[in-house]
Sequence to fold (221 residues):
Amino acid sequence: MRAVIFDMFETLITLYESPIYFGSEIAKDVGIPVEEFLSMWQPTKYDRSVGKMKFEDVMENILRNYRCYSENLIEHVKQKWIDSKKEAFRHLHSEIIPMLTELKNKKILIGLISNTFYEEEIVIRESLLFPYFDAIFLSSEQGVCKPDEEIFHRCMKALSVKAEECIYVGDGGSCELETAQKLGMKAIQAVWYLKEGTLQPTGRKKNFINVESPLNVLQYL
Fold:
């Protein structure tokens, strides 16, 4: 194998080892009933994922609809949203850095394909993981998100590798493993962050290799 391509959330980092700050928490901070807030917040997910809308755009629309618009309030919840993502990088599995270091030592190319919102781009690029990547493809920058094959093709092109030369490692959300496998990659489900009974987007997938700890990825090179 010449390259390993990773997902970010619930693969390299997890949002569930630190206090979560999702739509329900934002609703409480701005004083809007959760169900009503989510009915306007959740439909914007795709547009935010492909960079068509930013956090503050969505919040302005919602707050103006409830006649409680305030630039300070938007900035307050936006900063809490960003801080929650930064906090996730402080709770890495102990084997993440050793795994990435060993891949570098073995001259294996490292790619990242992640469905992100605009506000997460800077957090990722300022993180301690950023220097390890040889190619980074974030949906909010690319205008296309997983499971669309296009974002996989763009990453492979940047790495100058073919699908059969790649391992794809992800938690399995957004049908990413299915796409990777269809393209000819070895698809591996990262389950080291998986916890039953949480809000995590997926569970174990029986049709894919389940890897229990990051360093175990190395045995599939």
In short: The radius of gyration is 18 Å. Strands lie at 3-6, 109-114, 135-138, 166-170, 186-190, 209-211. DSSP finds ten helices and six strands in the chain.
